[in-house]
């Protein structure tokens, strides 16, 4: 079952993301990152790959796209805050964006 | 060359869109619409099809997605307002969303 990140989880799993361009929105316990690509095709290609993982894991981002920029926000509505699923999807997105 | 919609163009081309769920943001001369689908796969499928047309026509939307909802805003930066390209893409999106 999905649970909110523990204090230990935050230290070990969240901290590396925050040092890799993600920022914490404490008001709603979510993480966000802006990804900038070379062009629209690359940006939307990133979204397409991420979308497939999101659906596979049944955990979906809030995201927007303007040409070559994609803004992503991750949080877990079921626990009203960050869970391991957000960490997993954030890491996957970083990997895809490469 | 892309030109801003004329008064006639607004009447003949924009009006039907406004009667089909699009709304006009007069402050920046843009049109917006919220599309709601059955699920994430259908919503992202819509985005994928629209993305290919957008790239083909070299005219890209500002859009966001949260699960089954897609919010789209169209405007033409080159003319600082609405052009026939926005009408063309809006119609295509309506057709795809079907």
UniProtKB/TrEMBL annotation, chains A, B:
Its recorded reaction(s) are: (4aS,6R)-4a-hydroxy-L-erythro-5,6,7,8-tetrahydrobiopterin = (6R)-L-erythro-6,7-dihydrobiopterin + H2O
Record keywords: Lyase
State which residue ranges cross the membrane.
none
Q: What is its EC number?
A: 4.2.1.96
Q: What is this protein called?
A: Putative pterin-4-alpha-carbinolamine dehydratase
The top EC class, named as a word, is lyase
Q: Which family does it belong to?
A: Belongs to the pterin-4-alpha-carbinolamine dehydratase family.
Q: Give the organism the record lists.
A: Lutimaribacter saemankumensis
Q: Which InterPro entries match?
A: PCD_sf, Pterin_deHydtase
GO BP annotations listed:
tetrahydrobiopterin biosynthetic process
Q: Which GO terms describe its molecular function?
A: 4-alpha-hydroxytetrahydrobiopterin dehydratase activity
Keyword Lyase on entry: yes
Any keyword tRNA processing? Answer: no
Which Pfam families does its entry note? Pterin_4a
């Amino acid at each position: 079952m999905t649970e909110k990140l523990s204090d230990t989880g935050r230290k070990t799993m969240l901290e590396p993301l925050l040092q890799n361009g993600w920022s914490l929105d404490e008001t709603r316990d979510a993480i966000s990152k802006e990804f900038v690509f070379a062009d629209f095709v690359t940006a939307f290609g990133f979204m397409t790959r991420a979308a497939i993982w999101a659906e596979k894991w049944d955990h979906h981002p809030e995201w927007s796209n303007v040409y070559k920029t994609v803004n992503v926000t991750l949080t877990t509505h079921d626990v009203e805050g960050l869970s391991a699923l957000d960490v997993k999807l954030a890491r996957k997105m970083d990997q895809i964006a490469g």
